[in-house]
Amino acid sequence: MTPFQVLNIQSTLSLIVFILIARWYVAPRLANRERNEAVLPLLWIHVFRYAPLTLLAPGQADPHIPPDVVGVVAYGDFVAALFALLAIVAVKLKLRSATALVWLFSIVSIVDLVYATARAVAAQLYTFYIGWGWYIVNFYVPMLIVSQVMILYYLVKRPGRTLPGSVSSERSATSVHT
Prior knowledge:
- By secondary structure, the chain is mostly helical.
- It has one domain (3-171).
- It contains six helices and no strands.
- Helix 1 (3-30) runs parallel beside helix 5.
- The longest helix is centred in the first third of the chain and has 28 residues, at 3-30.
């Protein structure tokens, strides 16, 4: 079996498992939450995207990996992690900019996932020694993809949705009756 086949089998199985976990366990627990509260636990998954910075540490990855690919993977994920943390803080503090920051994180995240994946596959990163980065690719990245899809779902399908009894719905009810 080639390294590319191993990569595809492991990544595909992880993706299937995370889709099932999301569908059967995560989505039902988020179903009755207000949009920004629903995306909060999903954003936490992305905060750890600083892990690929390991590619920059001596001895942790093959020094023959093209430096531009290392940079795209390491720094792209790091920037996405910072935006995820920024979005979390905005949501927790209930800032007006919270939803915009979740959208901004999502744009950065998706661009990074697509671009870094394309660059890594084109450079055949799977043929190089990447240490525990192999587990990031085959375990963590599928989790990132599933959680990102869920975040987009809440942003698109539940814009401004508030639940009865929430602060936002009480404000709406008050403004209607005044």
